[in-house]
Amino acid sequence: MELLPLVLACSLLFTIATPVRDITNDVCISQISDFQHLNSSGLHLTLHHPQSPCSPAPLPSDLPFSAVVTHDEARIAHLASRLAKNDPSSRPPPPTTASLLHGHRKKDGGGQLAASLASSVPLTPGTSVGVGNYVTRLGLGTPATSYVMVVDTGSSLTWLQCSPCSVLCHRQAGPIFDPRASGTYATVPCSASQCGELQTTTLNPSACSRSNVCIYQASYGDSSYSVGYLSKDTVSFGSDSFPGFYYGCGQDNEGLFGRSAGLIGLAKNKLSLLYQLAPSLGYSFSYCLPTSSSSAGYLSIGSYNPGQYSYTPMASSELDASLYFVSLSGLSVSGSPLAVSPSEYGSLPTIIDSGTVITRLPTSVYTALSKAVAAAMGGTARAPAYSILDTCFQGSASQLRVPAVDMAFAGGATLKLAARNVLIDVDDSTACLAFAPTGNTAIIGNTQQQTFSVVYDVAQSKIGFAAGGCS
Ligand SMILES: *[C@@H]1O[C@H](CO)[C@@H](O)[C@H](O)[C@H]1NC(C)=O
Description:
Blueprint: E1 14-22, E2 27-39, E3 42-47, H1 65-85, H2 110-116, E4 135-140, E5 145-152, E6 159-161, E7 186-187, H3 193-202, E8 207-208, E9 214-219, E10 225-237, E11 240-254, E12 262-265, H4 273-281, E13 284-288, E14 297-301, E15 310-313, E16 325-326, E17 328-333, E18 336-337, E19 350-352, E20 359-362, H5 363-376, E21 382-383, E22 392-394, E23 405-409, E24 414-417, H6 419-422, E25 423-427, E26 430-433, E27 435-438, E28 442-444, H7 446-449, E29 453-457, E30 462-466
Parallel strand pairs: 5-12, 6-11, 19-28, 20-27
Antiparallel strand pairs: 1-2, 2-3, 3-14, 4-5, 4-10, 6-12, 7-10, 8-9, 9-10, 10-11, 13-14, 13-29, 15-30, 16-19, 17-18, 17-23, 21-22, 22-26, 23-24, 25-26, 29-30
Bound molecules: 2-acetamido-2-deoxy-beta-D-glucopyranose.
């Protein structure tokens, strides 16, 4: 892979006016600044909750919680299927081969793109990249233009909707990227090594257009995907730019939510944003995921202050080298360990993920957690189950008396969860335990990570947690 020389022209604070949320009526009112800032401790970007009205591309304000749960289920199924794809003992049947583009309204050029696709991904259009994912901004092209992007630790390829949208682009915040307007844009030929990497990066085969341009197919579970041209251009954050960045120029984009332009992939793969910037910034990133009522948190790429974190080894799984795994070692409620055998905690591969809302635990662990939390909240009126959430209470998470829940990881790192990390409000008068049981893949979701600083140090193969990263 090409090195990305760091253009250190200057590291002035680059600011974009962004509003602060007024929680009482769900609008953003006062002003703070989005930051895109490179200094000796790396690149620092503002991160917004997908449902915060302060997000530059917020989800619809009337999005019901059921849509979040539905999306979460699809994401879990997708992550589990990624693992299954690589597991010889549970290899799923090969994808169906109906044309990806079949049935879509095609604009000029769509037919050609369709005809050039060697294969397809087994998906139907409809929902959901980004319901659970946080968003930030990224600049692209020369001169640079700014795009709202969802940030995803569970995938690698960065892509965005791209003019002329041969098949389909969704409405997005701001104009769609136009490669013809960039003096540094280039398509990537099929013979390039980056084209060869796509199978590993997206777990879908690449294809080759009639004009020898490499075509990527990125898919995200039930029904969302992006297909288009593998491309190369200068990516920038504020005044700092990185030439020669490989990404997808999406011509058929199905299932984008919240009017973002595309997705930033941060998983462990040569084509991820992390790995492409790493020669300049280093192989690590950290974030603080804000709550929905907060204006912003941060995403930082590159060096970080190591002292503040407690660490757990980054676990690896042969099932998927690109995802981030951890080893859960124990859970306690009000200081008492759950009544399960310690081996239960590690009985499933456990992914730590930025885009899954609800944490999934091995069924025996979940059952013990649910019982312990319900017992600790014995005086609180119960509410009926809500979809996959079966431990619900009348009231809101911020008002109920919620027991301390600690999640411990191998090596001693601990997430000491606050009430907002334990219960999630599903409607105005009901809060549910934000955990669910799973039989195949455990996931540490983003409700539990909110307000903690979390560092992914790929170079040293460890993950760290620190309280008090953002609000
Ligand atoms: C770099 O910038 C970030 C974000 O503005 C700030 O929090 C951090 O303290 C800065 N680091 C140094 C070493 O100046």
